[in-house]
Amino acid sequence: MKLVSIGEILWDVFPEGEFIGGAPFNLAAHAARLGNESHLLSAVGDDPYGKRALAEMTRLGVLQDLMTVSRRNPTGIVSVSRASAEEASYTILRPAAYDDVSPSTELLDRVNQIAPQWLCFGTLFAHPESGLATVRKLLEASPGRRFYDVNLRDGHYHWDTVETLLQAANVVKLNEHELGWVARKSGFQGQSFSALCDSLSKEYALETICVTRGGRGCGICHRGEVADVPGESITVASTVGAGDAFSAMLLHGIASGWTITECARKANRLGAFVASRQGAVPDYDAKEQLAA
Known about the structure:
alpha/beta, UDP-N-acetylmuramoyl-L-alanine:D-glutamate ligase, 41% helix, globular
């Protein structure tokens, strides 16, 4: 599987330490860990954080041919605080280097040459108009399938952007809170899960909708088929990055032709493993995760 993930690479700064992160980076890193050709399209600053971020990309097998270095803004940083292991709040410092990504002709040509099976994007990067314009141009340059991780962060989204990205996607992942918000904004509030998925699929021409439910697993609607798959029993260390690991396994499974239930079960398992560890991309045995 070839994957291009568009958006932020940054450092999550916790009271106990600093961890490489950013949902698009995490997704790319987990996809690479699972044995896929994984490219990140982003930027770092010309600073120590940027050098460390590129070193982490190399260590984790994420390809850097779509990366640039910003001379204007620093590498992204997010201050993370937690009320509990399962509840995190984020203070996102912007502008950051990833806000300087520009869809040059050279960059668009390179994406077209890669011909990714998946082009992946999220709300945070697309929140400023410049980011949304970049995503649009990249979508025009690539004929592959489109994965949208809704991933809302306070102060960094509005409905017009989310709806535009929903219209551009084939596969969408969101959590229960985000699903409720999307249902209200799109006028489908109060429907059952299966009816809501059917309404959203028809409204936005979506192939797959996946709703993560934390420890209770996930629900997936895929081409009219609905699967409700329970989660794994674990002791949670940190939920940061767990959803991105879930997404990587989900896309790997869809591309591999697994049943939607198998995709959900293995995605739940990997997401749970990551939630049981500190850091968004902890070490794990990919063969073990894929064989489970």
